[in-house]
Amino acid sequence: MMRVVPLPLRMIFSLVVMGLIGFFFHLYNTVWLKPERIRKKLRIQGIKGPPPSFLYGNLSEIHKIQSQATEATNHAEIVAHDYTSTLFPYFELWRKEYGLIYTYSTGTRQHLYVNQPELVKEMNLCITLDLGKPSYLTKRLAPMLGNGILRSNGVTWAQQRKIVAPEFFMDKVKGMAGQMLESAEPLLKKWEDCIEAQGGVTADIQVDEDLKGVSADVISRACFGSSYFKGKEIFLKLRRLQKAISQQGFLFGTTRLRSSLRVMNQKEISSLEREIESLIWKAVKERKQPCLEISSSEKDLMQLILEAAINDECLDKDSSKRFIVDNCKTIYFAGHEATAVAASWCLMLLALHPEWQARIRREVAQVCPNGLADINSVLQLKTVTIVIHEVLRLYPPAAFVSREALEDTQVGNITVPKGVCLWTLIPTLHRDQNIWGPDANEFKPERFTNGVSKACKFPQAYIPFGLGPRLCLGRNFAMVQLKIVLCLVISKFALSLSPTYRHCPAYRMIVEPGSGVHLLIRRIDAGITGSIDGKETEK
């Protein structure tokens, strides 16, 4: 005799089955149908790309291509400037197959690679707030940058930019030149001491860490009213945090770390984030009362951020604290790390090209015979300017311009569906032979002799500082600091590559020397040193 299943059990069973069907349909819609609808909208516009797999998109292919490129990497003694095939081999492979515009997927996320100069210009100059920073990427970078100006979108970003931008206008930056000179003094003294300790002629020095110290001291003095010595703990922890986040594979939201290491990595990130915020808040509280007592014209950047938070009626106590700490973290990191890395690449390339050292030395002696105390004379130095431009062309600290369509957005002749992330690979754009000519992979500062507008066929393709509304606020600050540091160093020392130097650019949120920059540094026998006090000094 057949057993009758009670009605309540049949109802429960039916509900479970319906729930499972609904769940699997939602899953299928999320991981395939929705991304496929976006891909179809792009295909209709003639945009193709590598076929994605279910669930993972092109992630497996990305990891496979990267592993093959890493195994094939040979860090030879020859310094090759085209490093994109090693750091981002999948982009290069797909570019050769699909052209300057193509689409690819990471899991359920759809991306649009855009390296066509006209569209890059349109994307960068777009003023709509519907094109912002990728939300998944900014989430990964939150421990480092919080919701500061580099990470925020929309009205929040516009408000923060209004506060920060005036501090980096050229008139303000000129007033920081004296602090930049003072910050470089210990570096010159340290290298002279190293030369004496290593026999008095030449010293083998790893310069990149010393340059980070100079840059950190500059940003501390100029923007936060303190010295690097006082903020050293913050900078050291920020560097540790930067490395920890880089290990997570933040670019695509995936990591190759084993689960146990991933847990340890996340714990380290959380711990460092708390420690950094505590240190910054301690520094903020020390400055809070003076902020209320001095005039606006005398306030540094930290005090202006404090004032904005105090006067914003929309911010409660916790939101106010978050606003202050996040923007201080952003300035601490972005204000010194990228400039220091750029200075390291400058010295490496000058060590490879002593003829450009000689040109800089001669120009400094002619234009600044009394040293570098006159900032207006420093700004007139043409040779060091074109050298910096060329270094930033070959080694831009930021590897990408990245955006996300927060709504359906028109970029040039392409309608970008909501949720699509757009990527421009800056090093590839900076080495495009159709834009820069057949010598695009060579170090030739003379291409910038008549300015950026005459250096290539499409000036908007030169974007080491970005372009348009999201143009790097610290551009003037970085250029003046680089000019001062390079002129001081080259006036005082002759540089060549150390036999221990290993050329292996690495991507750790920015493109930096993977094994440091080791140089042989020799004191110049005679010549103007570009001294701090403005007096000529003969050796």
Give the gist of this structure.
The chain has 539 residues and is α+β, with helices and mostly antiparallel strands. The protein is built from 21 helices and 12 strands. Helix 10 packs antiparallel against helix 11.
Please supply descriptive tags for the structure shown above.
five-stranded mixed β-sheet; alpha+beta; 539 residues; three-stranded antiparallel β-sheet; 12 strands; disordered C terminus; Cytochrome p450
Describe the secondary-structure layout:
Elements: H1 7-44, H2 59-72, H3 84-87, H4 89-98, E1 101-106, E2 109-114, H5 117-125, E3 131-132, H6 135-140, H7 142-145, H8 154-164, H9 170-174, H10 177-197, E4 202-206, H11 207-224, H12 228-247, H13 259-293, H14 301-311, H15 317-352, H16 354-367, H17 375-379, H18 382-394, E5 400-405, E6 409-411, E7 414-416, E8 421-425, H19 426-430, H20 433-436, H21 475-492, E9 493-497, E10 505-507, E11 511-513, E12 518-523
Parallel strand pairs: 2-8
Antiparallel strand pairs: 1-2, 3-5, 4-12, 5-8, 6-7, 9-12, 10-11
Subcellular location: Membrane
GO molecular function: heme binding; iron ion binding; monooxygenase activity; oxidoreductase activity, acting on paired donors, with incorporation or reduction of molecular oxygen
Family: Belongs to the cytochrome P450 family.
Question: Can you describe what's shown?
Answer:
- This protein has 21 helices and 12 strands.
- With 539 residues, it is of the alpha+beta class.
- The protein has one domain: Cytochrome P450 (Cytochrome p450, Orthogonal Bundle), CATH 1.10.630.
- The strands form 4 sheets. Strands 1-2-8-5-3 form a 5-stranded mixed sheet, sandwiched between helices. Strands 4-12-9 form a 3-stranded antiparallel sheet.
- Strand 1 and strand 2 form a beta hairpin.
- Helix 11 runs antiparallel to helix 15, helix 12 runs antiparallel to helix 13 and helix 16 runs antiparallel to helix 18.
- The relative contact order is 0.14.
